[in-house]
Amino acid sequence: MARIYLDVCALNRLMDDPSQERIALEADAMETVFRLIKAGRVTWIASSILETELRKDPQMLRREDALAMLTYAAESHIPDKWAAERAKLLHRLGYGAFDALHLAMAERAKVDFLLTTDDRFLRRARRNLGAPSIRVVNPLDYLREATA
After folding, report:
1. Which parts of 37-140 are beta strand (E)?
2. Hey, which of 36, 70, 117, 118 has its CA 20 to 30 A from 54?
3. pTM as predicted
């Protein structure tokens, strides 16, 4: 069973305005991912970093909906010294602060995939900055691979 980590962009895609085709497709993909999680076919690993970032959302309803989804996570990890040092290195290499923390936490939790809709994050990971030990993919790409 695949172990996945969702960043805030992927999680929030469910609540984004679907009037753009890309957003609608990614939202549909995230709905499918959640169906897989609820069916026990995928294990969602979360972290205290994810919760911290979600709590920063100024839109109360969006924030509350996203935080409520955390109940579907099978595990939630807190950063340790290794993850903190790894995140610092990743940030120095060009990842955004939260992206670096999410990647470090996902690596520490030994997930198979980190799902994000953040193009900058995806580009940095595809360029192999910091040699990520896990796959960082868009939810659409994840589903293509998972169902192939």
Report:
1. 42-47, 75-77, 113-115, 135-137
2. 36
3. 0.95
